[in-house]
Design goal:
Elements lengths: L4 E7 L6 H9 L6 E8 L5 H11 L3 E6 L4 H11 L6 E3 L1
Parallel strand pairs: 1-2, 1-4, 2-3
């Protein structure tokens, strides 16, 4: 199975567990992933952490937006997905 899978991760003030979340996704045995991190107006270091991971892994896309809530963050992630297929919303 070679299908590209998009994983959308809404992020809001999650600096204390965000690295663990992203590391878990990156380390999956299925590697044909597109990882979309949507920083939904975080006021902590979450946005910086997202940007750090974007530099480390080319599968990661980062969106920074004003806070609009979970649905708004998910929809922003959907707007940049390229898979056109299976989408996992976390």
């Amino acid at each position: 199975m070679d299908d590209l899978i998009s994983v959308i991760v809404p992020v809001y003030n999650a600096e204390f567990y965000l690295r663990q979340c992203i590391d878990s996704i990156i380390k999956q045995t299925y590697t044909n992933l597109e990882i979309v991190l949507v920083n939904d107006g975080s006021t902590d270091n979450s946005g910086k952490i997202c940007d750090e991971y974007k530099e480390i892994d080319s599968r990661i896309k980062v969106i920074h937006k004003m806070n609009g809530g979970l649905s708004s963050a998910r929809n922003a992630g959907l707007d940049v997905c390229i898979s056109g297929g299976t989408i996992l919303r976390l």
